[in-house]
Amino acid sequence: MTTITLESPKDTSSLKSEQERTLKAPRRKYGFFASTLFFMMDFFYGKKQTFSKFKVLEIIARVPYQSWEQVAYIAMTHTYSQPGFARRIFEFVKEARLQQDNEQWHLFMLEEMVQKKGIHENFFMYRILPQIIAFFYYHLSWIMYVVKPAWSYGLNADFEDHAEHEYMGFVLENPNFETEPFESDFEQDYGSFKSLADLFRRIGIDERIHKEESLARIENARFS
Ligand SMILES: [Fe+2]
Ligand SMILES: [Fe+2]
Question: So what's the architecture of 33-223 in CATH?
Fold first, then answer.
């Protein structure tokens, strides 16, 4: 299984070839719930990608991992009498937490950019509404996971595939990002990059890794 690593790649040419790879790859055939979510996001925030719209995306991105973690903790409460089994659940919790933290850094860096650039955001649209959407998305992920985990992983794979393509497309549409330096209070935590373009390419790769993790989980569920 792929593990999330921030070590590589970081250099511009590798990041560019990863961006090419995403842009050449077809998107997944999104399911009903994912398509509805993307439609709603375009409806409320417009089709054009913006820093603020990505922030909304990142607020929502964390919640499937939170819902899986919560279900896993309940499962551990019921299975700790079989420590070997409970430990495997705990390994899964740790992985979900890593992904959740990774999404958290994305959110922090985007918020920092929005503030530095002095982008005005409507309070309801960018503070309240994303939390309402996240609330419903959390419960949807939760219930799907309880009924059939593969459904929840499939929904997340759709979400992450969409995010991966959107970030890589955002870089393509904004050539000025190539020369805009990335300066952040979160460089120590997340990594340093030569430009905003490289940062967004790296975030796009993270989203691909998240997608691959979910797809691997579906495969594992099929063969276990
Ligand atoms: Fe993200
Ligand atoms: Fe993600």
Answer: Up-down Bundle (1.20)
